[in-house]
């Protein structure tokens, strides 16, 4: 990809990535509402067990990773449709 195209894609990729993070947070909260009691436990909250804290963290990490990959891939596909170049190569 020409250097100028990569420079143009960088801010677009950042904006799309931030939007993806917000979407992932919403998805996590909706999923947690269905599987866990109350808000997801934070690591420094003493009234939750190791298992509860680690399960919440694992679920959150899984959701964020999948959404991040989907958003990045979708952004790259859209970029290729518009410009004819793949942003990651």
From TrEMBL:
UniProt keyword terms in alphabetical order: Membrane, Transmembrane, Transmembrane helix
UniProt-listed InterPro entries: DUF4235
Pfam families membership: DUF4235
Transmembrane segments: 12-32, 52-71
Name of the protein: DUF4235 domain-containing protein
Organism name: Streptomyces fildesensis
